């Protein structure tokens, strides 16, 4: 029997609700081939998250069944849990996709409910089917002599862990000290330097493990990775100049 969102998670205990800190993706939309999401908590859970507490509902309040892989991945501090959508329903041509179809479809509205912890609604956008392309990301440059943030605006939704997988190097290849943070509902990667920017050349350096929320990497798209012979160990780089104006 299908269950409704009202029955399964609208009543939150005050103590449990105090733990809820948010969900990634934090924006209003997710791609139809969403592969993973992250639940952020103010305090560590006392035990591994039970996936029977995690539900996804359509706009009618009907649960979308067999959505998640029963493999929650806790972060090192216990306050972040990564939940994977079943990859077999995402990849075309494999059994679950052929038997059940994709869990998400472009144009629908879905609501994630984690009993006693969090609730989040998204509009489903078309699938993200391309590998990550740094050249397509907008970079808003700071002025030299300031400690204003360098703002990177990816054209895809990245997970929260992307914050630590992107760095800035100076013209000598040394990592620039500073603080990386998300802004605009995880639509902007912001880097605030510890010291004022100097005029000159810099490089954005992106770890090869970086993925968007659909599992696409710099080397290949999620759908193509098994067939790709591209070396996925290479980091991504994009040069930029902090000018003198």
Report the sheet with the most strands, covering strand number, pairing sense and barrel closure: 4 strands, antiparallel
Number of strands: 15
Shape descriptor reads globular
Unreliable spans: 1-18
Strand content: 25-35%
**Helix and strand string, N-terminal first?**
HHEEEEEEHHEEEEEEEEE
Query: What is the domain tally?
Result: 2
Mean pLDDT: 84
CATH architectural name of the largest domain:
Sandwich
Broad structural category: mainly beta
Radius of gyration: 20 Å
Helix content: under 10%
Descriptive account of the structure:
- The chain has a 4-stranded antiparallel sheet, with no helix packed on it. It has a 4-stranded mixed sheet with strand order 2-8-7-4.
- The model is unreliable at 1-18 (pLDDT under 50).
- The longest helix is centred in the middle third of the chain and has 6 residues, at 95-100.
- It is mainly beta and 245 residues long.
- The protein has helices at residues 5-9, 14-17, 87-90, 95-100, and strands spanning 20-24, 29-31, 36-41, 54-57, 73-74, 80-84, 109-114, 118-125, 138-140, 150-153, 166-169, 178-183, 188-193, 200-206, 236-242.
- It folds into 2 domains: 5-125, Immunoglobulin-like (Sandwich), CATH 2.60.40.1220; 134-242, Immunoglobulin-like.
- A hairpin with a 3-residue loop joins β7 (109-114) and β8 (118-125).
Question: Can you summarize this structure?
Answer:
By secondary structure, the protein is mostly beta strands. It has four helices and 15 strands. It folds into two domains: 5-125, Immunoglobulin-like, CATH 2.60.40; 134-242, Sandwich (Immunoglobulin-like).
């Amino acid at each position: 029997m299908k269950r409704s969102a009202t029955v399964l998670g609208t009543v939150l205990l005050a103590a449990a609700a105090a733990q809820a800190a948010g969900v990634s993706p934090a924006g209003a939309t997710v791609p139809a081939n969403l592969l993973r999401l992250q639940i952020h908590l103010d305090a560590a859970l006392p035990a591994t998250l039970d996936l029977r507490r995690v539900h996804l509902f359509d706009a009618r309040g009907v649960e979308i069944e067999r959505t998640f892989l029963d493999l929650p991945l806790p972060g090192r501090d216990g306050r972040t849990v990564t939940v994977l959508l079943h990859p077999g329903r995402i990849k075309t041509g494999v059994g679950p996709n052929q038997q059940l179809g994709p869990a998400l479809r472009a144009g629908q509205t879905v609501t994630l409910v984690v009993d006693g912890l969090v609730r989040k609604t998204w509009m489903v956008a078309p699938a993200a089917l391309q590998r990550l392309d740094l050249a397509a990301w907008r970079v808003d440059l700071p002025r030299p002599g300031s400690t204003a943030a360098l703002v990177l605006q990816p054209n895809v939704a990245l997970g929260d862990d992307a914050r630590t997988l992107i760095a800035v190097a100076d013209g000598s290849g040394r990592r620039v000290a500073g603080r990386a943070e998300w802004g605009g509902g995880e639509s902007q990667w912001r880097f605030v330097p510890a010291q004022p920017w100097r005029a000159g050349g810099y490089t954005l350096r992106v770890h090869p493990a970086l993925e968007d929320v659909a599992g696409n990497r710099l080397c290949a798209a999620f759908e193509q990775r098994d067939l790709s012979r591209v070396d996925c160990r290479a980091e991504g780089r994009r040069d930029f100049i902090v000018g003198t104006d």
